[in-house]
Here is the input.
Amino acid sequence: MSTASHAPTVRRVATAEEMHQLGRELALRLRAGDLIVLSGPLGAGKTTLTRGIGEGLDVRGPVTSPTFVLARTHPSLSGGTPLVHVDAYRLSSALELDDLDIDFARSVVVVEWGAGMLDGVAESWLEVAIERPTGADESGDAVSDDQADVDEVDEPRTVTITGFGPRWAQGPDVVDPA
Here is the structure.
């Protein structure tokens, strides 16, 4: 892919609710034709972020992981831009993604696991990388296996948002609450 248009925005997100809120904030900057590529390990919060984007765009829900359907379109409830949520995990190439016939121009498209599959799809896009250090609590201190089940703990995440292309030349402009 190409070089970032602006320095990345980095946010520390401590809880699932904060991840959801970050999605709502990001939605305020999105418009038809925007492409967002999400990366991060299983359970990092990609779908939670997308759920927040969907809420911010006021789309019909619920926004859930489209793992088995590959792509799900959520029409706007208020005449705005629809959200297309794609899970590219099971796709092996950009050609398979193209076969989904996604309306990139008239939708906000969020692609989980899409890194390396979107060359030439859009002139501009956002990459959102979510790092989830397993076994840490909100303070960043290690949590032993006997202290908590990883799936039941709101672990801190580091979210790096990088804009590419002319649309994001000034950066993604997501407010940092710190």
